[in-house]
Amino acid sequence: MIKTTYVIGHRNPDTDSIASAIAYAALKQRLGDNSVIAAMAGAPNPQTRYILDRLNIPDPLFLADVHPKVRDTLKRQPVTIERTASAYEALELFNKSGVRVLPVVDSENRPCGILSLLRLSESYLLPSKDKLRQVRTSLPNLAKTLSAHFETGDILEPPISLNLFIGAMLEESFSSRIDGYDPHELLIMTGNRRTIQLAAIERGVRVLVVTGGHHLDDDLLERARELGVSVLLTPHDTATAAWLARLSTPAECLADTQFAEIGVDTSLTALRQKLLGPNVSAVLALDGDGTLSGVATKSSLLAPLPYQLILMDHNELGQAVPGADLVEVTEVIDHHKLGNGHSNAPISFITSPVGSTCTLVARRYRECCMEPDRQIAALLLAGILSDTVILKSPTTTDVDQQMVAWLETCSGLVAADFGRDIFAASSSLKNYGSADRAVSADFKLFTHEKYGIGLGQVEVIGFDEFYTMKEGLLSALAEVKQRDNLFIAGLMVTDITTETTLFLVEGHTRIAHVMEYPQLEPHLYELKNVMSRKKQMVPHLLKILAKV
């Protein structure tokens, strides 16, 4: 099975996260792996939206989560049986397919029951004494199973219950044996015995089956028509016909109408709970319109998932797309601190203390002796300029500088001009539409011992807009702090022109005594020459946590 590989950044993705995912997927595809798809775990922020639109690059695939779903483990084209099909056909399917349960479906592929090989076997091998003669069938099924054809009678009847008698004796004995039975519930089988045939017809039995390839005399056939007796002629001998008749029962009559079902988009966890229930050997998986998509059994829980992940611009599962902890991760490319647990198998892990994940992706292009096309080169350039704030951030390294110079050549763009365009077009709090969106657009969670920290960051040109939105931003931070049970929830508002950050924080009151930066007013601090969340803000906050 060829798995799909999703190259995906962190939740609340920034430009570096999305740009690196798109560019790395493009590299993988050029190297011959067409199963790789760029994805994103959240909507592009205003800056990323501007860059993608300017470069005419479509959005990567949006994945709200990657939790394994029921559909991920199903074998398509499940073995099913029509509700009107016979038990004989069901046995053939069981033998041919090797399955132990058959969904019974209607003409629109909607399940109306489930038939197990065990239940079918018990129905014929262990019938109750009061049902030894009973044959539950429909006349079309009876004719088909016996390879018979109708001489008289209506073949479109629904399933009926008949009592089977074999006419292999003198007429007097035969007639006495069927006394007391309703003729309309009798199925008589006999060979070339005119007296038995006549007695059955005169009584007005529901069905007369003439076995052995024999025909019914014309006068008897006419009398059968007059009395409404359905006459079937079969090439089988009487013993074989009697055995086959019991296997003509429609599948819907044998199926268990109480069965477990689940939606294909439901989680595997929910499927596991259903399969562990009492007497549940299979669960029918349904599409949204109620039609059957597949059959899930306990072995489905062990089936490999059809997709895997490459994590970009993060390595902590707390920042990853929901469900990433349940999916195989094959590669990580990141420029942050290490925070993940051990992987189950060796993986490719590329990390370096550079200013941008796009720098690492650009370096991979060069290591593969490939030059990105102009679009991808411009996208990588945008990612580096965004994360390093046009190479002004203290996270900027010589490697970032080198990759920017190379990407300028590949893209035909001037980095300084391109960077100014990016920030001029997107460095406005109003672009986010609301205070909630401004806080959450690039919000990351960090942990230190028992403390949880959440930090968002936005770049602006001047602080005028910030002061008009400050109260709304503080309220949004308070909601996030309570929702995620954080010790600190803060927003870095960074002016790229003055290289100063205003830090708006909702947190413990003791923070003010150890913050080590000027407090302009309650909840607000001025941090001159601070631009990097990763290299400056997070380490500082982790340091002060030790003091509170």
How is this structure best described in words?
By secondary structure, the chain is of the alpha/beta class. Helix content is 36%, strand content 22%. It has 19 helices and 24 strands. Strands 3-2-1-16-17-18 form a six-stranded parallel β-sheet. A six-stranded mixed β-sheet has the order 7-9-10-11-12-8, with helices on both faces. It has a six-stranded mixed β-sheet with strand order 19-20-21-22-24-23. A hairpin with a 5-residue loop joins strand 14 and strand 15.
Protein topology:
Elements: E1 4-8, H1 15-30, E2 36-40, H2 46-55, E3 61-62, E4 81-82, H3 87-97, E5 101-105, E6 111-116, H4 117-125, E7 134-137, H5 139-145, E8 149-152, E9 160-167, H6 171-178, E10 186-190, H7 194-203, E11 207-210, H8 218-227, E12 230-233, H9 238-246, H10 251-254, E13 261-263, H11 268-275, E14 283-286, E15 292-296, E16 307-312, E17 329-334, E18 348-351, H12 357-367, H13 374-387, H14 398-411, H15 415-426, H16 435-440, E19 443-448, E20 451-460, H17 464-483, E21 488-495, E22 500-507, H18 511-514, E23 519-521, E24 524-528, H19 533-545
Parallel strand pairs: 1-2, 1-16, 2-3, 4-5, 9-10, 10-11, 11-12, 13-14, 16-17, 17-18, 20-21
Antiparallel strand pairs: 5-6, 7-9, 8-12, 14-15, 19-20, 21-22, 22-24, 23-24
